[in-house]
Write a structure and sequence with these properties.
Elements lengths: L1 E3 L6 H8 L9 H14 L3 E7 L4 E9 L6 E8 L8 H16 L3 E7 L3 H9 L3 E12 L10 H8 L3 E4 H4 L3 H17 L11 H8 L10 E6 L2 E11 L2 E9 L8 H15 L4 E7 L3 H10 L2 E2 L3 E7 L2
Parallel strand pairs: 4-5, 10-11
Antiparallel strand pairs: 1-2, 2-3, 3-4, 5-13, 6-11, 6-12, 6-13, 7-8, 8-9, 9-10
Helix pairs in contact: 7-8, 9-10
Length: about 300
Amino acid sequence: MTIREPTPDDLPALVAIINTDVVKPYTPETFAERTQDMRQQSGVFSQVVLDDGHRLAGTALLTSAPLTTEDLDLLLIVAPDACERGYGSALLTHICDTARALGARRLETSVRDTRPAVRDWAERRGFAFQLHRFESTLDLTAFDDTAHADLDGRLAHVGVTLQDMGTLGRDEANWTRLYSFFADRDQETPDKQGMPRLTVEQTQHMLRMNPAVQPEWIVLATRGEDWLGMSVVAGHPRGAYNYFTGVAPDARGLGLARALKVEAIRRARAAGFTDMWTHNLSTNAPMLAVNRRLGFTSLPGLWVMRRTVA
């Protein structure tokens, strides 16, 4: 058994393992594209494969938000027909050694809620349940704009305009303002409670230096000089990812989340995407209700689990 970095020749076998734990399978080409995106966007990117002497039997991937090494995201997959051989434990030991060398404090992983045995395995190795997150998908080719024709009138009634950073970003001061506005809204989301606030440098990497995000895909709800909410779309090999939607606390109740998401859908369709997907916590009932109204279909959820790096 050998744990090593993957080579180009490993790609087909690596993708076959990855596809045992994803909703929409990758091709080798789309996985290579996604891997390149993650390398560019992550503060940490470390991937290994486990070779049992005959074939690839598992893989593990560590990533992080831009410019941080303290909190790491872990993806660990063992081929279904190679389980119960200690391969997962070997990969986890290797990953923990890597995380310690980086000075990381915490690992976070997601387990599909249809796989309780995997959750049990993770709990026996120090991971504790934190959150229940749901993935939802939308067929953009079937989205009915006319079902949301009321939005223009509603927004006009409360004096709200939808703009994007393609226009607002012509003034550099608005980019600076966006970094702080996004960090504030991100900090208010249920899954970021107790987590460090994003720095200006991190939000800059996530929104402006991220090749998957175009300025026209960052939509803001404004009223006069006030910014009330925002939605962000990121390009992904499997479709348009509604990366974030948030509304300032004092602007909630105006229907802005639906308006922002509808505009994000329009931008994604205009860019040629045919599918959209997003994630929300099980406790975020208002946003889940908006998604259902827009026609998103809920998929099996994810148990978010964390452990310290000891």
